[in-house]
Amino acid sequence: MTLDAYDTLTIPDTVPEGDGQFIGYTIEDDGELIKIYQPGEIIHSEELVQFSEIKFIPYFAQNVVEVDNMEDLLDVDSDAIVSLTADIDYDGEDVGAGIGSGEFNGILLGNGHKISNFTIDANDEQINAGLIDFSGDGCQVYDLELSDVILSTYSAYGAGFLIGESDGYTVISNVKVTNVSLDVVDYKTYNYAVAGIGGLIGTMGAGIVYNSHVDNFDSTATIDLEEVDDDQKAETIGGLVGYENSMERGGLRIIDSSITNSTIISSEGIESASVGGIIGICDNSTDFGLELRNNKVSDSTIAIVNSNSNGASCTNEIGGFIGSESNYIRNQRDDKQTPNLVVNNEIIDTEVKFTNTNTTDASTVHIGGFAGYACSDFNNSEPDGGAIYSGNSIDAKITVTSLGTNPIAAGGFFGILDIWNNGYASTYINDNYININMNIDSNAANHSNIGGLLGYGAIEGSAPVYICRNIVDGILKADDGSVESIENYSTTGGYIGYFLNADSDVIIEKAFISLQVTCENFASSIFYYENDAMGDSESCSITIGEMYVDNNSILGNVNEELETVIDVDSDFFTITGFSSYYWEVIDGAVCLK
Prior knowledge:
By secondary structure, the chain is mostly beta strands. 1% of the residues lie in helices and 54% in strands. The strands form six sheets. It has a 28-stranded parallel sheet that branches. Strands 10-13-16-21-26-31-35-39-43-47-51 form an eleven-stranded parallel sheet, with no helix packed on it. An eleven-stranded parallel sheet has the order 11-14-17-22-27-32-36-40-44-48-52, with no helix packed on it.
């Protein structure tokens, strides 16, 4: 069977007879077990479109190990198929090196049971920490609940309540984690900070997280940085996955999952951090991209507090879903490439914030309702191999309060969007809804760019970029110290704060902007634009059309010289469909009446 994207399919609903214990239907690709599905399960074909030929076959396991207590669970072989037959309460005891005595590459069938009331107290010889400390070849965990867990770790590469580090293709399906917290993070031993702390997985390679949920995760911890070198004081935290580094087949898929009632917050004194409601850092270097579909972040706080760069060049990135997202997609195979799909995700009643009382901190801050920083570098020949951000809903409070001199890029969706399309793959940021309460209060002297949708955008490459049919509503208040004009590259826009284009065609149209803006450095109701002098001016263009802006939403000290939507050579622009109730064209620039 071959598949097209955007379809659904149903796993056979019969329970067959066979030799051994029926586990479910497996998907086999060139003899390799990919994932187990239950009879009748409905799945998105995007999970599988990267495989050239799909076969659904019954999977009968031999020598299934049935366990009903923690001692036997921890002692299983690293490649075992384990079936949990009872709930386990471990009375606050430590799981030590975890399931498989340090490494587990098998299958864990939770069967709906709960493992509760245990600690993960990694010693100074463990570089990972989790119920499963390390998975080298990628393991699979199904239908399991973890609750009431406390994690303490030394300088781990990965620390997660389910898995510390997974390397290879990992499958997590129907897993729930509740009432979990960090206790002590001691960075003395290895002299570098944690690469990833996650509610499910600390550091993850390729794989699928499906219908899995983290509730009441508190990452606040006592931290010891005394013996850590300054350039190593970095931290990455995500509600589900701390650090994703997908170098394997399949990329990363997170579908129908959530983080709720949680405090995802970096440790005080860290020089730089990446913190996200779902993923701290996504560093994807495969041909298959990232898929986030139908996920939710609600009633949570995503924050970096009191970073301390001491004047060094450091970056802090905070996002409601992802702190920092980097996707490097290359045309390395003959069949169809899977695009980055970020669709139908939702943020509700969540605060994304950067708070700093350190006057010496000069770290750069990237903060966004969806992602603080997003970079897409596509070099492929397929037009459908780009990035799609569509149908997402952001209802969030975004706050920056700093006594430092932090340059800031803040946006209702992206803080910074950096696109390099050196192929045929377009990027689509369409049909998203953003309702924000953004308050920016800092002493930044320059380079602060703030927008209702996007703080700072830099676009380069041959494929078009589409930013269409987005709705931006709410309140934006920017008070950033000495910033007064665009002369020091500091701007605030109702839609985009600052836009830099080289060699690309960008289509921005059909937006609805009803954002109450109060600020010192207002640039425009839509954006301030600069053409990159290094680019080829004949090959790049901006098309702006059918924009609706509520003229009554612009408040505060508006610099009359900066009121225009655009103020550059009109040869680069096609301007269509502006409502005469709100717009007029003067000398090639679209201006508020």
